[in-house]
Amino acid sequence: LRFVTLVHAGQDEPGVMIDGAAVPLGSAGFTDLISVIRGGTDAIDRVDRWLLKGPRGARLDPASTRLRAPIPRPPKIICIGLNYRDHAIESNLPIPETPTVFSKYSTSVIGHKDPIVLPRNSTQPDYEAEFAVVIGKGGRYIREEDWRAHVFGYTILNDVSARDFQMATSQWMIGKTFDTFAPIGPVIVTADEIEDPHNVNISLTLNGETMQSSNTRNLIFGVPKLIAYLSSVFTLEPGDIISTGTPAGVGFARKPPRFLAPGDEVTVHVQGIGELINPVVAEP
Ligand code: ZN
After folding, report:
1. Distance 159 CA to ligand 1 centre (A)
2. If residue 154 lies in a helix (H) or strand (E), which one and from where to where?
3. What's the 9 CA to ligand 1 centre distance in angstroms?
């Protein structure tokens, strides 16, 4: 299934994409997508049965429906740095032996087609295409071999980064969590739709020009390792997002550098999920 959060009758409502239409799930008894994720396979079965009966209520045209981020306020957004060999090399940093972890606050989250607002106090705003894992069943000390039981699905995240703030100290987070710096979506595909998350094409275009192009087979730390490592420190919860890192081709490493500018449009494509598109605007 392909889950969204959409604005319907002026309110956020979970939905599912079926045959090119967005079908709100409010009348199936779900008030938000987190409640579906928390409900696990039982909730997905309930949605499946409800769809089989022929959904009562609206079928919305996605072109004229506003999509929010699928989880507008994720419990945690956990980001992995330098997780593609070629990106570590272009950043002039050693290939990590331990995952580099930072986070974004939920106030940075925006949805598909929402504008990335360039902060007036940064001169180096940049993009990062990322494949993201959505946690289903939570837990602590999850074993690597049990990873599949804890993944609800997958989505796309653009890890927008203000390089001047990020590189000013050894802690990157301050450059990563400006408002609007976490575009997510447009959909969460359930785990069964992506047979192998370590063989998925990922790319980013800026105004139609390809800037990043890779495959998740190039991840240094794969999904099982990340889930085991992170959950050895803190409890993973339903709806937590683990963004697995970005491949080579980011703006600051280009010669000459190419930072985001007002009027740009950034598109992240991930095979099997779709396209996350965001316009770029100046802060008013
Ligand atoms: Zn990143």
Report:
1. 5
2. strand 151-158
3. 35
CA of 130 to the centre of ligand 1 (A): 7
* Model confidence pTM above 0.85: yes
**pLDDT (tens digit, 0 to 9) for every residue of the chain, 284 residues total?**
999 999 988 999 999 998 889 999 988 889 999 999 999 999 999 999 988 887 666 788 888 899 999 999 999 999 999 999 888 888 888 889 999 999 999 999 999 999 999 999 999 999 999 999 999 999 999 999 999 999 999 999 999 999 999 999 999 999 999 999 999 999 999 999 999 999 999 999 999 999 999 999 999 999 999 999 999 999 999 999 999 999 999 999 999 999 999 999 999 999 999 999 999 999 98
Residue 32 Cα to ligand 1 midpoint, Å, equals 27
Compute, in angstroms, the gap from residue 161 CA to the centroid of ligand 1: 8
Element holding 14 (H helix, E strand): strand 11-18
Q: What is the DSSP string of 205-251?
A: EETTEEEEEEEGGGBSS-HHHHHHHHHTTS-B-TT-EEE----S--G
